[in-house]
Write a structure and sequence with these properties.
- This protein has helices spanning 16-27, 42-52, 65-75, 98-102, 109-122, 157-170, 177-190, 253-264; strands at residues 2-7, 31-36, 58-63, 87-92, 125-135, 147-149, 152-156, 199-202, 209-212, 214-218, 224-226, 229-231, 243-248, 277-283, 285-298, 301-321.
- The chain has 322 residues and is an alpha+beta fold.
- It folds into two domains: 2-123, Probable inorganic polyphosphate/atp-NAD kinase, domain 1 (Rossmann fold); 131-315, Sandwich (Tumour Suppressor Smad4), CATH 2.60.200.
- Strands 5, 6, 7, 8, 9, 10, 13, 14, 15 and 16 form a ten-stranded antiparallel sheet that branches. Strands 2-1-3-4 form a four-stranded parallel sheet, with helices on both faces.
- Helix 1 (16-27) runs parallel beside helix 5 (109-122), helix 2 (42-52) runs parallel beside helix 3 (65-75) and helix 6 (157-170) crosses helix 7.
- The longest helix has 14 residues, at 109-122.
- The protein starts with a strand and ends with a strand.
Length: 322
């Protein structure tokens, strides 16, 4: 087997020594080429090269969710074809690693490497569905390139939090769960649409959902982790179905207290609920519109401001080693 290992040297939870150990472990089981990313988007370029190659069977992403997202977008640049494209394996090296953990992999890089090697020996794999976000035809965002996401996306409040975190990281702050919590609080107090949301969800054959302040799109559950605590915005979301949406129409202090507590205590059986909460399950295609440009995030990556984004749930998009 020939494999490409994409290594993010800035991965927050692995040292250079640990990465060397993992590379040697993987190289002992396959013909491995290891490449260290050197710029933003490099993982996407490497994934695309692997997809266009005729002799690469496996791509291993060693890094956080951002690294995985780049590699996936490179692999799927010409569209999904799980029977032709190289398989994907993930070794978590970031601060949260939602995609890897949602697949059932250990959150420790060394243990996850062992699990991946065991899965390769056992020929254990699955085909997962992914989300695709694109500019909406007939709007000013029509020309925005489509982008795949593996576990979640968010327009509005969620995207604003991610944008604030990225600003802090550019200033030298480490990506920690405490940093995210602080930015959630700052985004909340700076949110101009706390009581009257500007987002509308439209889907064919259904009445639009209006007045959303929060719009979280999930491709799997959990939505994210706070430390080791999983948080389920859409408990029914799955790699085997379409996309789920969790929305809130109000972010008043009582609403924040209620739904924040529900998120902290959420489980695979119970997610946030109430008169200001909206939950939609297994959607194939829908559009989020905003009256004003709002921040968009996908897999924890801030993508700027958008007024309209169309989301598509693509079943059987990619073959993954688990």
């Amino acid at each position: 087997m020939r494999a490409l290992l994409v290594v993010n040297p800035a991965a927050t939870t692995t040292s250079a020594r640990t990465r060397d150990v993992l590379i040697h472990a993987l190289a002992s089981e396959m013909k491995l080429e290891a490449v260290t990313t050197e710029y933003r988007g490099h993982g996407r370029d490497l994934g695309r090269q692997a997809a266009e190659s005729s002799d690469i069977d496996l791509v291993v992403a060693l890094g956080g969710d951002g690294t995985v997202n780049e590699v996936v977008n490179g692999l799927l640049h010409a569209g999904p074809d799980p029977d032709r494209l190289p398989r994907l394996a993930v070794v978590p090296g970031g601060s949260t690693n939602v995609f890897a953990r949602a697949l059932g992999l250990p959150n420790d890089a060394v243990e996850a490497t062992g699990a991946v090697l065991d899965a390769l020996r056992d020929k254990s794999e699955r085909v997962v569905g992914l989300g695709l976000a694109s500019g909406t035809p007939g709007t000013e965002d029509e020309a925005v390139p489509a982008r795949w996401f593996t576990f979640n996306a968010g327009l509005g409040f969620d995207g604003g939090v991610v944008g604030r975190v990225e600003q802090q990281r550019e200033m030298g702050k480490k990506s920690t769960h405490a940093l995210y919590v602080r930015q959630v609080a700052r985004q909340l107090f700076g949110e101009p649409n706390r009581r009257h949301g500007a987002i509308t969800l439209e889907r064919a054959g259904e009445e639009p959902v209006t007045g959303l302040v929060v719009s979280i799109v999930s491709n799997t559950a959990p939505w994210t982790y706070l430390g080791n605590r999983p948080m389920y915005a859409s408990p029914k979301a799955s790699f085997d179905t379409g996309l789920d949406v969790f929305g809130l129409t109000r972010l008043s202090m009582p609403a924040v207290a209620r739904y924040g507590t529900q998120l902290l205590n959420s489980s695979p059986e119970h997610g946030p609920h109430g008169k200001h909460a909206v939950g939609l399950h297994d959607l194939d295609r829908f559009t989020l519109h905003s009256k004003a440009p709002l921040p968009l995030q996908m897999d924890g990556d801030h993508l700027g401001l958008r007024t309209s984004v169309t989301f598509t749930g693509v079943r059987r998009a990619l073959r993954v080693i688990v």
